[in-house]
Amino acid sequence: MSAIDGLPPLREVIARHDLRAKKQLGQNFLLDLNLTAKIARAAGDLTGCDVIEVGPGPGGLTRGLLAEGARHVLAIEKDARALPALAEISEFYPGRLHVINGDALEIDPLAHLTPPIRIVANLPYNVGTELLIRWLTPAEWPPFWQSLTLMFQKEVAERIVAKPGGKAYGRLAVLAQWRTDARIVMTLPPEAFVPAPKIHSAVVHLTALPEPRFPADPKVLNRVVAAGFNQRRKMLRASLKGLHPQIEDLLNAAGISPTARAEEIGLEEFCALARLLAAAPR
C-alpha cells in the first residue's frame, strides 16, 4: 500500500505499464508519494479549487493533489503511454480527474475548469520556462489562476526569485516579481527522481497579485527588460539605444544611471522607465 491512498506504489505502476522516462519529453519521475503530497500541500488549501497539472506521467503528483482534497484536477499529458496509469487514478477518484492527451503549449484548459483555479506541476524540463512566461504574461491581469506551484531545475527557480545585483537576476525575475509573490518552498536532490537528473530541483510557489506592483504597460516593460538583459554586459545607454533616440535622457528621468547595467536595476526603476518610454514622443 502507498502512503497517501489505496493505489499501488509508483514503481509497480511504472513497471506494469512500461513507463520508462523519455529524455526527449523532459521526463524525470518523482516516485516518493510523501514528497508528491508535500508538493501538493505547498499549493495551499486545494479543497474548493480546480487544479491544472502539466506532465503528470505515472501520476504521483496527481495522486497527491487528489488526496489533499483538490475539487477537480485537469491533467495534461503528452505521452500516451501514461494514459492507462492515469485512468486507474481516475477510477479511484470518480469524477475528480480529467485527463487530456496533448501538448500543454497548444491546449486551452479553461473550457474544462471552474474558478478558483490553481496550477501545480512537476513541469517537463524542456517546456517549463516557456509555460511560466505564458502564465505570467496574459492579455489581462489578474490571470485565470490564483497561484502557481511549479517544479523547475534549481537554477531556474533561483532565477525566478533573484534580486538585483547577481548573475541569476534577469528577465524571468522581473516578469515574475512584477505580478506575483514568488518564493522557493522546497528543494529536491537528483536521487529523488527516476532517472536521476544531473542537477537539483526546486519548487517555486507564485501567488498572483491583484495588480502589478508598479504601473507599466506590459509590452513596453517586456521590451525594456528583454533589450537590457539580452546584452547584459553592456551599459543601458548602449543596450537600450534602439528603444528611443533620447534613451539617456529617459534613463536619467527614471533615476537610472545611463552607465548602469540591467542586472543592477530594480523592478520599480524598470517600470518607471517603461512609463516614460510609453509617454515619450518620437
What brief labels describe this structure?
282 residues, alpha/beta, Rossmann fold, Helicase, Ruva Protein, domain 3, 2 domains, seven-stranded mixed sheet, two-stranded antiparallel ribbon, elongated, rRNA_Ade_Mease_Trfase_CS, S-adenosyl-L-methionine, RNA binding, rRNA processing
Instruction: Estimate what percentage of residues fall within beta strands.
Output: 15-25%
Give the fraction of residues assigned to helices: 25-40%
Structural category is alpha/beta
Shape: elongated
| Spatial arrangement of strands, main beta sheet | 4-3-2-5-6-9-7
Classify the oligomer.
Answer: single chain
Task: Sketch the topology as an H/E string, one letter per element.
Answer: HEHEHEHEEHEHHEEEHHHH
Count structural domains.
2
Task: For the record, give the distance between the C-alpha atoms at the N and C termini, rounded to a whole number.
Answer: 68 Å
What is the arithmetic mean of pLDDT? 95
- Provide the gyration radius in Å: 21 Å
Number of helices: 11
Number of strands: 9
Name of the CATH first level of the largest domain: Alpha Beta
Instruction: Show unreliable segments.
Output: none
Fourth-tier CATH superfamily name of the largest domain: Vaccinia Virus protein VP39
CATH architecture descriptor text of the largest domain: 3-Layer(aba) Sandwich
CATH fold label of the largest domain: Rossmann fold
**Biggest sheet record:** 7 strands, mixed
